[in-house]
Amino acid sequence: MLELLETVNYWHWLALGLVLLAFELLGTAGYLLWLGLSAMVVGALLTLIPMSWQLQWVSFGVFSLVTTWLWWRRQFKSDKSSDAHRDLNQKNKQLIGQTVRLEQDFPAGKGRIKLGDTTWTAKSDVDLEADTLVEVTHVDGIILTISKKF
């Protein structure tokens, strides 16, 4: 087995990289992309610098971990920033701007309103009379802030 490891040259690393990249095309969602690129980098380095088989595998492992970690950090930041602009499946963002006609008088402070098929806890700075058209201006958790719509 050691003899086999000692005979590994840059062509083997380049072939391994291409095979991993080919499997990535089958839809592994990026899992094999960074491994394939790391294998190709080791192959390219091996053409320039003679390395022992142990150093080759350590280099492959280090490159794989570093590239995967860097991609994960970049993707995480991108996903987090794009989530701030999404409205899908974020009920609180979908409620802002909706209007409803009050069924009963709403005293200043907290109370309940019916919006759609759900009753919500709401707060208002002023007294509102029944049959007044109000708009949701802010959502704080499960508490809606409403104001009179003009």
Structural write-up:
By secondary structure, the protein is of the alpha+beta class. Helices cover 48% and strands 21% of the residues. The protein contains five helices and five strands, in the order H-H-H-H-H-E-E-E-E-E. The protein has helices at 2-6, 10-24, 33-48, 53-83, 91-95; strands at residues 99-101, 109-115, 118-124, 133-140, 143-148. Strand 4 (133-140) and strand 5 form a beta hairpin. Helix 2 packs antiparallel against helix 3 (33-48) and helix 3 runs antiparallel to helix 4. The longest helix is centred in the middle third of the chain and has 31 residues, at 53-83. It is rod-shaped.
Q: What descriptors fit this protein?
A:
about 150 residues, alpha+beta, five-stranded mixed beta sheet, 5 helices, rod-shaped
Write a brief caption for the model.
This protein is an alpha+beta fold and 150 residues long. The protein has helices spanning 2-6, 10-24, 33-48, 53-83, 91-95; strands at residues 99-101, 109-115, 118-124, 133-140, 143-148. The chain is 48% helix and 21% strand.
